[in-house]
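Homework help board

Subject: predicted structure for assignment chain

Our instructor gave us this sequence and asked us to write out the predicted structure in token form, then describe one feature. I got the tokens but I'm not sure how to describe them. Can anyone check?
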Amino acid sequence: MKHRIVVLGAGDAGAYVAGNLARRLSPEDTEITVVNAAPDFVQRQRLNQLAAGREVAAPPLTEVFDGTEIRLRLARVTAIDPERRVVAVADGDGGGEIGYDTLVYALGSHIADHAVTGAAEHAFDVASRPSALRLREHLDGLDGRGRGRVLVVGDGLTGIETATEIAEARPELSVSLLARGELAVRLAPGARDHLRRACDRLRITVLEHTDVDAVEATQVQCANGTVLASDATVWTAGFAVSPIAAASGLEVTDNGQILVDRTMRSVSHPDVYAVGDSVYTIGENGRQLPMNCGSAGFTGRQAIEAIVGRLTGRKIAHVKLVYWYNAISLGRRDGILQLIDGSAQARRRFVRGRKAVRIKSGVQWGALQGTMHPSAFGRPRRRRRLAAVPADSARTTAG
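My token output:
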């Protein structure tokens, strides 16, 4: 019988892992199923552009996986039973169970409202394609009236990019960026200065040392007593992972990320691998890798090497887990590439302007092409046979 590999999630990490496993393992021995709630591949790092009004491609997953023999199951993951090795899913037909021998957990992350009153009900976000499109439609309505106040809460990379993209694409709107402390404190001084100049150029109002206590339909209440009028509040103040891993009994951190060994294999369930935002792993600098698309690529590559190596009886290659830089878009014509040192601190050196834009655009293009066409990027073309079905891959009766 074939070894069943099930990949949960088809974002940056999940789609990359599934496609590369399909191109490196023989279909005579393996059967790969990808479970994803949506039928399209979402370029999550570009959703702020989509919300601002840009066109961002979302190729069908059937196109992404064309020629791979991957089975695509459009369904929402509701639970995992790692003892029985089954995944429970829900879809339009009611759902069911999917059995696995090797599971790749790549369910990613979602917006974290930090229990702020009204944030879930009244704030927009750019954490998924549907939510970005809802924000876009709302901004279209504000643009149509020739006015509107947009508050972006959170000055992390997502908040900065969202504020600058909206301000550039929709100059009729008044955009404010709320930071809990000093704006972009993790950037080098020169990069922070460049960011401030960009905000001034785009007429973005920066409100520092501002905590939000509550979000209402037309205003935001701040901890210092200030009330800010808002026609669209965009929440970017942090991300959280799905509770499914913790509920399943997998060993996780306090925030729900899966604990793994150096090869992205669960420390509690050796037939489960975790990649992307879902995993807690330590990089080459001895610090936790951040939640970003770069980490998705590195953890995904390591999981691929581990799964292929173990199933085919070959030595497992160790992929360097590094955190080199942050690439920040400041609209379509400006940006910052902030280099990171071995202590995960910003180096004084950074790249700015159109050169930073070209670098980030190249990285995004390469990530998409590497997912859809891995053989074109030096990936092995030969599909390897399994050495043997692992002894601990006892079958369940789930289909």
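Reply (TA_rk): Your tokens look well-formed. For the description, you could write something like this. The first strand starts at residue 3 and ends at 8. That's the kind of observation they're looking for.
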